[in-house]
UniProtKB/TrEMBL annotation:
GO terms for biological process: putrescine biosynthetic process from arginine. It comes from Solihabitans fulvus. GO terms for molecular function: N-carbamoylputrescine amidase activity. SUPFAM superfamilies: Carbon-nitrogen hydrolase (SSF56317). It comes from the Bacteria. The keyword Iron does not apply. This is Carbon-nitrogen hydrolase family protein. Residues 5-242 form the CN hydrolase domain. InterPro entries: Aliph_Amidase/BUP (IPR050345), C-N_Hydrolase (IPR003010), C-N_Hydrolase_sf (IPR036526). Keywords: Hydrolase. PROSITE patterns: CN_HYDROLASE.
Length: 242
């Protein structure tokens, strides 16, 4: 039988374009989450650089996160020291270009999965290469299926991810202020329609020059939220899946 899995959804302040500073904040929040018994920590979309598309467009090489570079080394070290898995938002090399990605580190500090966002929109389509495959990772007997922002808005993405074997749908996202109900509707529908847990980490505070919703949380297979953050940063909410 699977044992219960304790997860955390995080909101953090992002320094625009500064992966090193943001990685240090990731490490601090991983340590705090570990104190609460967390086994998996989920960060928002592009959490290592912020949702700073203008900066990324002006300096794409500088703002591509090297999975083996110094910034990720800080995150990986924190995961190993505290025995925690982490889903981190980053730009990453993909398909001859760059993807909006989720990088998954295990509790030994090893990079075990990279998932590329499939549903790009707006200026993202000019900057990034879309992914084409579900992102699945096994953690303590649970299969986590990865999603990034607009992926969560498309019902078929969750359906295909669950069909591929996921029993937890893990989203790293950004919702602009005013979209609080949209966030809740997306998370609840993905959970209830597929009978799966949903963990959604979204930005709080500001990024990319705009105010965001906050509202990171965990939804049960019935579509009912078990825990949800306010709009503040930093903020960590935890729940145990069983």
């Amino acid at each position: 039988m699977r044992t219960p899995l304790t997860v955390a959804a995080v909101q953090l302040p992002c320094v625009p374009g500064d992966a090193s500073a943001n990685a240090a904040t990731h490490a601090e929040l991983i340590a705090l989450a570990a104190e609460a018994g967390t086994e998996v920590v989920v960060f928002p979309e592009l959490s290592l650089v912020g949702y700073e598309l203008d900066l990324i467009a002006s300096a794409p090489d500088r703002l591509v996160v090297d999975p083996d570079g110094d910034a990720m080394a800080l995150v990986r070290k924190a995961c190993a020291e505290h025995g925690v898995h982490a889903v981190v938002g980053a730009t990453a090399p993909h398909g001859g270009g760059v993807a909006i990605a989720s990088l998954v580190c295990d509790d030994r500090g090893e990079l075990i999965a990279t998932y590329a966002k499939q549903y790009l929109h707006g200026v993202e389509t000019e900057l990034f290469v879309p992914g084409s495959r579900p992102g699945l990772v096994e953690i303590h007997g649970w299969t986590l299926g990865l999603a990034i922002c607009a992926d969560v808005a498309h019902a078929e993405h969750a359906e295909l991810t669950v069909a591929a074997g996921a029993d937890v749908y893990v989203g790293s996202a950004l919702y602009w202020a005013g979209a609080e109900q949209r966030l809740s509707d997306h998370a609840a529908a993905r959970a209830a329609d597929n009978g799966c847990w949903v963990v959604l980490s979204t930005h709080g505070g500001t990024t990319g020059g705009g105010l965001t919703t906050g509202g990171s949380g965990v939804w049960g297979p019935d579509g009912v939220p078990r825990v949800q953050a306010s709009g503040g940063v930093p903020e960590i909410v935890t729940a145990t899946l069983s």
